[in-house]
Amino acid sequence: MITTIAKRAIDDTLMYSESIAKVQWDDVLSADIVFIGIFTFNAQRGYEIAQYIKQNSSATVVIGGMHTSLNYSEAVHHCDYVLLGEADESVIDFIRALNSDEVVDFPGVAYLNKDADDVHLIHTGNRTPPQNIDTIPDYDLLYNYDRMASYNTVWAQVHASRGCPHSCDYCAIIRHLGRGIRTRSVASVIEDIEQTIAYHNRRFLGIVPRANKIVWLTDDNFFADRKWAISVLNAIIDSDITAPFSTQARYEIGFDSEMLTLLKKAGFVEIVFGIEFLENESFDQFNKHCSYDEIIKAIQNTQAHGLEVRGLFILGADNHTVGVGQKNRQLRYRAQYQGRFNTVNVFYPLNTCL
Ligand code: B12
Ligand code: SF4
Q1: CA 66 / ligand 1 centre spacing (Å)
Q2: Which-ligand-closest: CA of 64?
Q3: Could you tell me if 268 and 229 are in contact, meaning their C-beta atoms sit under 8 angstroms apart?
Q4: What's the CA-to-centroid distance between 157 and ligand 1, angstroms?
Q5: pLDDT given at position 208
Q6: Whose CA is nearest to atom 6 of ligand 2?
Q7: Which domains are assigned to the chain?
Q8: What's the rounded Cα separation, in Å, for the pair 253 and 262?
Q9: How far, in Å, from the CA of 178 to the mean position of ligand 2?
Q10: Cβ contact 147:138 at 8 Å
């Protein structure tokens, strides 16, 4: 996303991901600006890379993304600037300021002022989150992704809305993307879905058609704006798109039979529930506002509409003890829960909102 936007200002822009291919270090070290995106799970590696580039090139090193936006006082020690929050707009402001040797003093930046006698942290203030989030990512800018995209392990993805109106205590999304929901235009979501399907289908070693056709709408709570979600589903139904879909949601969607019927009609095969805990005590502790029994009913009603349920869980609540994994297994029996796999996160004591 950020690479697609940065390319509008600098034509010679390319993205590398260590999850996808070997980084071409000669290219990186000869760049004028290097942007590094960091989540908590890859923060250590991100900082190592930032330090390496700073020591071995004259590039301006800029860090951004969820982890560093929430922990900028840590991140400033590893780079020249931290761009805070969603950088859809600030990345262009930043490139312009740097290109014209201006001081970077617009909202949404943190850095260490090293000119003064006492080195201190500068934070230029918070930036209003972007309202226009319609940018469609250009996957050709991600080095060698075309060689990987055709494998069945990679899911075609579209992120159609940002933020969530709920207030679960542990959630990094509401701190980074805001407590509220901003949606993309329906037309841009449909175009993005069509483009990502075309991209991921365009080769499979040039010979075998890709078997995994699923498109994942990666929104954290796709139904937070119900009216908008219905418009997107109707637009998928009215289009020529025939792909199977998956998306993420709170459990309440399992009680919305009108929406479940529409989802089935639009080609959805699975809903991923943020179940998180199996004890009512933990729901209360983390302000999650649901109960174990409601989750079971929501799973069963979703399944009754012909949709699979996959669960996302968190381990490490204060009351969790040895054997918490067994409870997870029991849930599968009680709910006749057919999810193909579960995803489990573990709370860990970093200075983060995860
Ligand atoms: C799709 C997805 C995946 C996919 C693909 C991940 C990938 N590496 O691309 C898969 C399934 C592989 C995955 C796996 C995991 N994921 Co995941 N995933 C997501 C999800 C749902 C959407 C990501 C997305 O597209 N966001 C939308 C874009 C627009 O947001 P963004 O990436 O943050 O980018 C914006 C800003 O952050 C900023 N920005 C980003 N990068 C940069 C860089 C610079 C320089 C600048 C200036 C700005 C900037 O600008 C962007 C545009 O506004 C997010 C939830 C979320 N809402 O982000 C979780 C999320 C990122 N995942 C998370 C986790 C924990 C994981 C796993 C560790 C889970 C596990 N237990 O295995 C693994 C790690 C895998 C790995 N090593 O990459 C957490 C991370 C929490 C944290 N504090 O870091 C999230 C936030 C979910 C959550 N609710 O907590 N994930
Ligand atoms: S419902 Fe999900 S995305 Fe929304 S605040 Fe709770 S955990 Fe975060």
Answers
A1: 8
A2: 1
A3: no
A4: 12
A5: 64
A6: 168
A7: 2-123 (3.40.50), 149-346 (3.20.20.70)
A8: 12
A9: 11
A10: no
Q: Given this model, what pLDDT does residue 345 score?
A: 67
C-alpha 334 to ligand 1 mean position (Å): 32
For residue 191, how far is the Cα from the chain centroid?
Answer: 19
Q: Atom 58 (ligand 1): residue with closest C-alpha?
A: 173
Long-range contacts of 169-175 (CB under 8 A, 24+ apart): 169/285, 169/286, 169/287, 169/288, 170/286, 170/314, 170/347, 170/353, 170/354, 171/353, 172/40, 172/66, 172/70, 172/352, 172/353, 172/354, 173/220, 175/70, 175/353
User: Which residue owns the Cα nearest ligand 1 atom 4?
Assistant: 218
pTM of the entire structure? Answer: 0.93
For ligand 2, the distance from its centroid to the CA atom of residue 163, given in whole angstroms, is 9
> Which pLDDT belongs to residue 203?
63
In whole angstroms, what is the distance from residue 123 CA to residue 132 CA? Answer: 24
Ligand having the closest approach to the CA of 219: 1
Task: Give the ligand 2 atom nearest the CA of 172.
Answer: 8
Q: Is 179 helix (H, G, I), strand (E, B) or coil?
A: strand
Identity of the residue numbered 157: Q
Q: Whose CA is nearest to atom 21 of ligand 1?
A: 218
Q: Which ligand has an atom closest to residue 62 CA?
A: 1
Please report, as a single letter, which amino acid is at residue 336.
Q
* Nearest residue to 290 (alpha-carbon basis) of 255, 326, 240: 255
Distance between CA 344 and CA 124 in Å, rounded?
A: 37
Average confidence (pLDDT) per 10 residues, the chain, 354 residues:
96 96 97 97 96 98 96 96 96 95 93 84 95 96 88 87 94 94 98 94 65 91 97 98 96 96 97 90 92 92 93 84 79 58 58 37
Among 218, 270, 272, say which to mutate for ligand 1: greatest number of ligand atoms within 8 Å of CB: 218
Q: Which ranges in 269-347 belong to alpha helices (H)?
A: 280-285, 292-304, 324-334
In this structure, the strands spanning 245-249 and 161-162 are unpaired
Q: Which residues pair with 344 in a beta bridge?
A: 313
Cα–Cα distance for residue pair 108/57, rounded to 1 Å: 25
Q: Residues 295-320, buried b or exposed e (16+ Cβ, 10 A)?
A: bbebbebbbebebbbbbebbeebeeb
